[in-house]
Amino acid sequence: MKVIFEILRRKNAEEKPYIQNFEYEYTDPLETVATALKNINESLPFPDRIRWECSCMQKKCGACAMLIDGRPRLACDEKLADHGERIRLEPLKKFPPVADLIVDRQAVFDSLKELAVWFENTAEPSEKRADTVHEASRCLQCGCCLEVCPNFSTDSKFKGMAAAVPLSRLIAEADEDEKKRIFKTYSKNFYAGCGKSLACRDICPAGIDTEELMVRSNAAAIWGKKRKK
Ligand code: SF4
Ligand code: SF4
Ligand code: FES
């Protein structure tokens, strides 16, 4: 089978981007965009190679997030056979460009630091909340949800679902002393800015049910808190 990749390229953030086409042939119907990029690069001289990020190649690290035919996807999870004869690859647009398909996703990790998304005290695990904790722990910090979120930008106070998902985990297991800080962070940096469009739920490549996590976190951190007043 033949496919033409239309790849948005630039050497660095300053260079004007341009589209370069690559013809590619494959036989395995399960072949992914990531494998195709790897094979195309092997056929190119080193300076011409397409710059993109990957690590695990098995949908576990989030590094290969990019726009594939306009949708944020993981290249290592996107099958060529699910696309037409032309496949367009572009870098995510919400983050500063670095080179070709690489963007600077530091804002995703800075949010976790800024909001101190960790326990200062000891967690209080419970069997009842184990499924919430497990679901939240599957987040790859890939940024796909932020790409489609109408309310997120890298400089906004609203930190989007990539922060809300790990916060859900803390909300589920925080002890009494730490709940106040975590509930306040969730309320100020997520709940107050979320428009509930649920675009994040429909795009998450890890299949995390962001709506369910949000409902549970709202119940505990927003409505539970109000009932106590
Ligand atoms: S919630 Fe899903 S889309 Fe968002 S960062 Fe986590 S894994 Fe990626
Ligand atoms: S529900 Fe909508 S506004 Fe809220 S985090 Fe998801 S995409 Fe963004
Ligand atoms: S390379 Fe790790 S998720 Fe694709």
Describe this entry's structure for a reader.
- This protein has 229 residues and is of the alpha+beta class.
- It has two domains: 2-103, Beta-grasp domain (Ubiquitin-like (UB roll), Roll), CATH 3.10.20.30; 106-228, Alpha-helical ferredoxin (Fumarate Reductase Iron-sulfur Protein, Chain B, domain 2, Orthogonal Bundle).
- The chain is built from eight helices and seven strands, in the order E-E-H-E-E-E-E-E-H-H-H-H-H-H-H.
- A five-stranded mixed sheet has the order 2-1-5-3-4. It has a two-stranded antiparallel ribbon with strand order 6-7.
- Helix 5 (161-173) packs antiparallel against helix 6 (176-191) and helix 6 (176-191) crosses helix 8 (210-228).
- The mean pLDDT is 95.
Which descriptors would you attach to this protein?
229 residues; Ubiquitin-like (UB roll); 2 domains; 15% strand; elongated; binds iron/sulfur cluster; binds FE2/S2 (inorganic) cluster
In short:
The protein has helices at 33-42, 106-114, 130-137, 144-148, 161-173, 176-191, 199-203, 210-228, and strands at residues 2-9, 18-25, 65-68, 71-74, 86-90, 97-99, 102-103. With 229 residues, it is α+β, with helices and mostly antiparallel strands. The radius of gyration is 20 Å and the shape is elongated.
Task: Count the beta strands.
Answer: 7
User: Given this structure, which CATH class of the largest domain is correct?
Assistant: Mainly Alpha
Molecules bound to protein:
iron/sulfur cluster, FE2/S2 (inorganic) cluster
Oligomer: single chain
**Any low-confidence stretches, pLDDT <50, length ≥5?**
none
| Helical amount | 25-40%
Major sheet: arrangement of strands: 2-1-5-3-4
